[in-house]
């Protein structure tokens, strides 16, 4: 069954947006009476029947609703975007498939990319949500200077992934299940010592993601996967 995305269903909107409508009617050739699946990204998955097969606004009626509870944990990855945007798209796609609640982008001293538009990244996240049939769309935040971000973190468990092979604290050993987490992932040149110290001053704990030196997007995904594994035990 074809899967589509409409976040405004809880507000009473029972039609797809123009892009989704075109894909539904023109590409997949759905017509009036066909059954489709629609996600709202807010916890509900709907079985719906098309009532108006318009490529501009494909209308539907809801037949059945399945609602999923929010997970007991909350994973927030704050990452310095790579110069090659494809690598960030890959990270978002895989993180959404695995399970993530929030993604933020950090402007660090060693950042290679200093301007970032999130529209394309949000579309990649929607595509991954539909692919994985996830119930919750993660929050994706705009690029923010590192010092500004550090002081606004609300999660209880705060970690900074830092390349320091003398650091014995592995994320997977110290993060407890069923909690809220924010983990900082630096640029290819890593965080500066000043950025590390600022994080520590704001109650972040320095952690390791393993013995290998990881690329930025790989580190982000390793952290995301590790925290999900901890919470799947």
UniProtKB/TrEMBL annotation:
<dbReference type="InterPro" id="IPR046887">
    <property type="entry name" value="RsmE_PUA-like"/>
</dbReference>
<feature type="domain" description="Ribosomal RNA small subunit methyltransferase E methyltransferase">
    <location>
        <begin position="74"/>
        <end position="225"/>
    </location>
</feature>
<dbReference type="Pfam" id="PF20260">
    <property type="entry name" value="PUA_4"/>
</dbReference>
<dbReference type="InterPro" id="IPR006700">
    <property type="entry name" value="RsmE"/>
</dbReference>
<protein>
    <recommendedName>
        <fullName>Ribosomal RNA small subunit methyltransferase E</fullName>
        <ecNumber>2.1.1.193</ecNumber>
    </recommendedName>
</protein>
<comment type="similarity">
    <text>Belongs to the RNA methyltransferase RsmE family.</text>
</comment>
<feature type="domain" description="Ribosomal RNA small subunit methyltransferase E PUA-like">
    <location>
        <begin position="16"/>
        <end position="62"/>
    </location>
</feature>
<keyword id="KW-0489">Methyltransferase</keyword>
<dbReference type="GO" id="GO:0008168">
    <property type="term" value="F:methyltransferase activity"/>
</dbReference>
<keyword id="KW-0949">S-adenosyl-L-methionine</keyword>
<keyword id="KW-0808">Transferase</keyword>
<comment type="function">
    <text>Specifically methylates the N3 position of the uracil ring of uridine 1498 (m3U1498) in 16S rRNA. Acts on the fully assembled 30S ribosomal subunit.</text>
</comment>
<keyword id="KW-0963">Cytoplasm</keyword>
<dbReference type="InterPro" id="IPR029028">
    <property type="entry name" value="Alpha/beta_knot_MTases"/>
</dbReference>
<keyword id="KW-0698">rRNA processing</keyword>
<dbReference type="InterPro" id="IPR046886">
    <property type="entry name" value="RsmE_MTase_dom"/>
</dbReference>
<dbReference type="InterPro" id="IPR029026">
    <property type="entry name" value="tRNA_m1G_MTases_N"/>
</dbReference>
<dbReference type="InterPro" id="IPR015947">
    <property type="entry name" value="PUA-like_sf"/>
</dbReference>
<dbReference type="GO" id="GO:0032259">
    <property type="term" value="P:methylation"/>
</dbReference>
<dbReference type="Pfam" id="PF04452">
    <property type="entry name" value="Methyltrans_RNA"/>
</dbReference>
């Amino acid at each position: 069954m074809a899967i589509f995305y409409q976040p405004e269903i809880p507000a009473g909107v029972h039609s797809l947006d123009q892009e989704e409508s075109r894909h539904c009617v023109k590409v997949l050739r759905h017509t009036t009476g066909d059954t489709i699946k629609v996600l709202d990204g807010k916890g509900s998955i709907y079985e719906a029947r098309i009532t108006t097969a318009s490529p501009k606004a494909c209308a539907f009626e809801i037949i059945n609703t399945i609602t999923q509870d929010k997970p007991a944990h909350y994973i927030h990855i704050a990452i310095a975007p790579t110069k090659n945007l494809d690598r960030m798209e890959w990270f978002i796609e895989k993180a959404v498939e695995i399970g993530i609640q929030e993604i933020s982008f950090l402007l660090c001293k060693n950042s290679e990319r200093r301007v970032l538009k999130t529209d394309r990244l949000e579309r990649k996240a929607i595509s991954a949500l539909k692919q994985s049939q996830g119930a919750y769309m993660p929050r994706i935040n705009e690029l923010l200077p590192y010092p500004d971000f550090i002081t606004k973190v609300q999660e209880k468990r705060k970690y900074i992934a830092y390349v320091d092979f003398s650091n014995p604290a592995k994320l997977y050993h110290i993060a407890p299940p069923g909690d809220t987490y924010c983990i900082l992932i630096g640029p290819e040149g890593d965080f500066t010592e000043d950025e590390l110290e600022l994080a520590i001053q704001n109650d972040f704990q320095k952690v390791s993601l393993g013995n290998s030196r990881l690329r930025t997007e790989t580190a982000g995904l390793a952290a995301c996967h590790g925290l999900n594994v901890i919470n799947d035990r």
